[in-house]
Design goal:
Blueprint: E1 3-6, E2 9-13, E3 15-16, E4 19-20, E5 23-25, E6 28-30, E7 41-50, E8 54-63, E9 66-74, E10 89-91, E11 96-98
Antiparallel strand pairs: 1-2, 1-11, 3-4, 5-6, 7-8, 8-9, 9-10
């Protein structure tokens, strides 16, 4: 089963009943929120701004007691050009996404 992984634990799943459920933007896979294990995401106060997507909000990813700061992000209110990724979650900083 594909997903975003930090060490050996699955954080997100990109398929449901065989259907592709991620949206790829600039090489990043954005998972629907319901496909991500919420217990692995810890709120962060960090934000960043993309000129065409808007303001990204971050989560720390914590798996098996190991925390990866600001390793997941989402756009709660994206600009119109990025509407398809609203509230979807992407990963980076050592979180591997398997397909």
């Amino acid at each position: 089963m594909g997903g975003a992984q930090n060490d050996q634990s699955i954080v997100g799943r990109k398929s449901h009943r065989g259907k592709q459920r991620t949206v790829v933007v600039e090489g990043n896979q954005y998972f629907p929120p319901e496909a991500v294990k919420k217990e692995a995401l810890k709120p962060s106060k960090h934000t960043s701004v993309c000129p065409w997507k808007g303001t990204a909000h971050y989560y720390h990813v914590e798996v098996d007691g190991i925390r990866n700061d600001n390793a997941a992000w989402y756009y709660p209110e994206p600009k119109p050009a990025a509407a398809e990724i609203k509230n979807r979650i992407a990963f980076w900083k050592g979180v591997r996404v398997d397909g």
